[in-house]
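Q: Can someone sanity-check these two? First one:
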Amino acid sequence: MQKNTFLILFFTSFSFFAQVKGKITDTTNSPLSFVSVYLDNTVTGTTSNDNGDYILNMTQKGKHTIVFQILGYITLKKEVNITSFPFELNIELQEENVQLAEISISTKDNPANRIIRNVIANKDKNTDKYAKYTAKFYSRGLYKIKDAPEKFLGQNLGDFGGALDSTRSGIIYLSETVSEIHFQKKPKKFKEKIIASKVSGTDNGISFNRAEDANINFYDDSVNFGGDLISPISTNAFSYYKFNLEGSFYNKNDKLINKIKIIPKRKNDRVFNGYLYIVEDDWAIYGADVSVTGAQINVPVVDVLYLKQNYNYSAENDAWVLISQSIDFKVDAFGFNLDGRFSSAYSAYNFTPEYNENTFTNEVLTFEKEATEKDTVYWGNLRPVPLTIEETTDYKFKDSLKLVRKSKKYLDSVNKKQNKFNLLSPIMGHTHRNSYEKWAISYNGLINNFNYNTVQGFNASLGFSFFKKQNETGKWWNTGAKVNYGFSDKRIRPTFFFTKKWNDISRPTMTISGGVETAQFNDRKPIMKLNNTIGSLVRRLNYLKIYDKTFGKISYSEEIKNGIYFSSSLEYANRKPLFNTTDYSFAKQGHNGGYTSNNPSNVIDVFKEHEIATLNVGATFVFGQKYLSYPDRKENIGNEKYPSLNINYRKRFGASNSELNSDVFTAILKQDINAGNYGNLSYYLRGGMFLKKKNIAFMDFLQANGNQLLFPLNGELNSFGILEYYKFYTNDKYAEAHIEHNFKGAVLGKIPLLNKLNFHLVGGAKTLFMANKKPYTEYSIGLDNIGYGKWRFLRVDYVRSFHGGIKNDGLLFRLSLF
């Protein structure tokens, strides 16, 4: 055993020193980061770090040719004779002398357009050369913050896990990932296995540096980079870009490289700015140096995202393949000054892998056993890009600090500060934590659930809850109770709950609840309490209609198989009508006709008090669901190609009046489709059928989600735009359909002058069919992405409806935050 241990340490130490290392600078002695370093005639190597340092792992001594390549500098091929390891080789690179050749430029075309057209025409030819491959992937993520605020929204931010210095600046996130990736072009498949993962200052070491997220491919028409952007070599690139040939140069293999400036026709389109480097005759990408603004990706907190890519020639398959990539970003919002970088390196390409039917499954990410537990020696040998001094210091400091911060003494001291009760705590709420024992007691505060309706008047809830974390794999339980009091009806309504979850894999969750509450007559809850409070107090419109429910309920849910979710619940309730007890409003007594009664329909009488039991059994199918398998959890990411289907059976039984009992089936089919450069299409279909038509209570009818608000705070696809809330209901059969397409910049972006506004055209249609009722239909056209500068959160729709020969129309304002 001792002999084996000695041999392992010996060979580990030997491989650690089998390196070529050094520093790369420019002619002013400034360090150059992101320089690709590799052996000539290979696509395997490393990149330099932010300090210009590099380490190239090698196994053989003797004569070698090492290549140093970075966009903007002359590629250097250095011949060396290595006699011993480690071998030090410092390099100075000179800036590339990009020259514009004497080309006769026609007034009908410019050379840049010719080059881009050739690249577009050869996209399939070039990508077919690596239509399938395996490779090793390395990624490093780094976030830095400067002058961090001490508080945000009244909450103390602390020191970000010990990351901040006296100026509240420092590294707040540092991670590394090494993985094996498998790729197939047709049909498109991707799989990743994490070999090693490390996060500074944490125990589990699970980073979010996924290879598929870093797979930014300009050969696709739509490029996912902070959002779906139009590639400068997409099939319709000339509708969005202008191109200019800045100059050309020859690379190390005497290939002519063209530097093409990509110029957006409209600055706020979903497009890139910067440069593409194109290989003449091969019409392949040699490199990219581009950026996008927060306005272009509709993420206002981001100032700018930068992307650099380096490609290298692979003689094995006569192809130009990606070998390194860096993503830099800057965020300056809400007092946070944040910047960061995610750098990646690809190596050990195999372009002739043997795949079988089991190679690609719906499990697209896995972790090797103990991938998050690799020690410093292992990482020192594995890491292809050396750490900077700052990164090394961060690892050492936080790895030692985490031992201290896990101690009971430290956690108690932190909790002592966090648990201080202040003047706002009674209003905003308060949480008392014991981080060492992993429990917390919370008080929800007077402001929580404070609202107004004409039944209760102003009403508020006071509640307490207790949370206990039992392990690190998702096992916990939570219990609590709250009391709601209406100041007009002078009634106290208490409720309680107990919830237990067993793991984060299948997420089995059980909840027991009960008490007294007010419930909407439409159990799909189309009216937000905040919307009703504003509508009632400002416009004297009390759209919210509620009844009193005393209940006991138990529910259970679990993902029983990948993509198949089971849910069930059993409830017994006493339900009785409620009546208005106040007519208070800021508006005049007769404004908008005054308040209406709490009866949701003038056709149906107020129901009589009764008791009834309800059984719900449902299943949701997410077809072709892809998922990520982490050591402690399963993360589902769906599948854009297929819709999801929900089927539910609801049985009402045990009522004293048998007419109130009912059986109903409902089904929902929905999907969001990414149409690439042409925007996003969404649809939602819902249908239902009672087994027998009976004179049931109003809240048990199947109902549509209406809207009578000019500015609803909930603008979901499954709601109608201008339909009265309780106009359509049935105890028989019904179906509804909603479809909407956001064209992004595909339509308005092509209209002169209007395209400068950067508005997005949105079109939609909705229809509703119910037994014994004429169909109801809505059509809408609207503008999204309305705002100022990069802050564009407003959407406006014009809606027109048709029902029984009657036409109606109206405007709808909404916030589109995401």
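And here is the second, same format, sequence then tokens:
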Amino acid sequence: MHATRRAVLLGGVAATLSGPWRDAEAASPAGLAGLAQPVDILEDRWGIAHVRARTIPDAFFADGYIVARDRLWELDFGHRRSLGRLAELFGAAFVPSDTANRLVLFRGDAEGELAAFPPLVQECARAYVAGINARIAEVTATPSLLPAEFALFACTPLQWDVLDLIRMRAEVTGNTRAEIRRARLAARGALAHDALVTPLEPAHVPTVPDGLDTGAVTEADLGLFEVLQAPLPLAGLHAADDATRRRNEGSNSWVIAPARTATGRPILANDPHLAFGVPGPRHVIHLTAPGLDVIGGGAAGMPGIMQGHNARIAFGRTNFHIDQEDVFILRTDPDDPLRYAHQGGWKRMEQVETRIAVRGEADRLVSLYYTVQGPVVARDSARHRATAVSATWLAPGANGLLANIGINLARDWPGFREALRVHTSPTNFTYADIDGNIGWQAAGGLPHRADGHDGLVPAPGDGRYDWQGLQPLEALPSRFNPARGWFSTSNEMNLPPDYPAESRRVSFEWRDRFRHERIEQVLDATPRATLADSVALQHDTLSMLALQMVRLLPDIPPPLAAEAALLRAWNGRVTADSAAAALYEVWWTRLQHALHARLIPPSLRDLLPGPISATVQLSLFHSPDSRFGPDPAQARDRMLAETFAAAVAELRDRLGPLPAAWRWGALHTVTLKHPLAAIPAVAAAFPAIGGPAAESGGDPYTVMARWYSPHAGAANPYAATGGASYLMVCDVGAWDRSLFLNFPGQSADPRSPHYADFLPAWLRGAMQPLPFSARAVQAAAIRRLTLHPAQPRSPVAPAPR
């Protein structure tokens, strides 16, 4: 950037702006179509926009406008993908993705769905879309404002329609892959092996529905649904190790009641765990208008705040893991493959044709098919079968993209819970309010399955196992002001002991409990918690798993005695500067490979490529059984010792011969690249963030979750690829004391000073103030801008006669 510098006076606060990015922004057109009244915006040092609107819809207009200003390529790419319009940009390889996404667009009465929301929510949704479109109009008129990707791919952003927020539905959770896997294991008489990779909680034996021919089930049955879950066919696009990402994505969240805090006010903490990327998964904004005052992290293309607080309540979220998708195998008519057997007769699939534009080629005319269960994802006329998928997020009323608006407007526990009725994604919501209440409500679409079907294996589509609609919010568990004085969730199985798990069949697939156990340990031991305590807990690197594994280390021969002593003396904290942590992580990774090789027969490795569940692995090492051989304990110890020796050899090769020089952070580095960085022009325009000097602690099982992908085949399999990039700790009622981080920054534009400005603070765990009151916002502001509505056109005077 050139050295142009310009000082802006803001209420006595001088702000220094530099570079063409800021200059170009200042030159943008002032009149914005869709805005009713002027909106003032104060920006702080992190580029957080504090919006001051005169009406609530205008605040949401600013939300759409600002996120489009900061993240237009991300917004447009997601929009195109959801609407099935990537092939027109990237070519024929994207036709399957476009077909799959069009297949799962909402097909009901979109206008009626929108009209079912309260009028204010409808107005806010329209205003948000108008804000996006207003920014698109600006950058179209002033191409220098367009993010670089649009020039590189010779395109312009798509206009939005408010009904897009109703029609875009795909929220694939991955349950269907597991169903196919279990059916194929059952066909080989090996279904019990599935529990090694996915132990079921509460304890449950999967049921193969009556009439299912498991031997006929193949991966091909997922068809277009597999396309939805697979990485896009563009070189360098993130998701190189999609299985690792899905296995680790989650979050931590806890709420602490006033009786257990130092201030007598509740504390709410939340740190969602998602794949690292440029930009990060959250965009922070503060929306203010009469009747609205809300701040926190949101997502591009979703109006409002996902994790944050308003003037009365704070709210966080983690994944709850409802099983929301089921595969149905249909028997089709040999004489007419569009007819399928259902309820003793034949039904005809509905056929819909859609035209897909393809860059450099003629348009493709594609047929989509639908049954009573849902979209048809695969058809095999030769085998007289087809596959349909039922998904909660396709149901009428499951308008997840608008749920934030009601949440942001809620003022108390009943209003908050009411707003969750339209929240589709499977979510643990944590809650606290200025009256001292705390709570937890599980939310998301919950299928009402037929008897004989637990959702873990595909079912025949003959009508016996069709869903009977969705269960109400009241069917999901909740707690209000728990006697313990706090509530925590980290994606573990948290159904209460008295919950009817077998009859409601919420889920049997959850995350390991190690993060939750550590949080539980700390919260129980902290009778007067402070904000600093929650910040420290979010960055806690003590591994409950590692402490138990190290205790199992057997006697090690003298040549490696020093390394064994290093590990035995370790405190279990997976810090970046720890040599013992580096040794443990490499050892653990090698143990995963070794145990998988011992327990999974070669004939099943195509279905169970690994790894073994960490919970199962720990249990088996504690109590080895006959699967280790005639002398299980001896075989266990031999495996532990051999992998330990291999880990030492690997570390000597990677980090040098002296254990004193080893550092976990030297392996566990953070490097963020543009999703399309494999394209040289993109890599040149978007510099990488982080690199070898960006060392991180943590692992997949510490509260400060920072996972890595040891099976991805990368040059450094220990590089951190995901974890918490947005972190928040709320002092409920004394809001200006709340803290946050949002890595790597607000903007996706490398010309912006907010492209990667959070990196140093994030690496240090240095949480930043989240100003909320008018006084605090004014004190923090370094830049002011005003959005002006477009001027109405003057009537044209009649020409003189």
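A (reply): Looked at the second one. The two ends are 57 Å apart (CA to CA). The longest strand covers residues 267-275.
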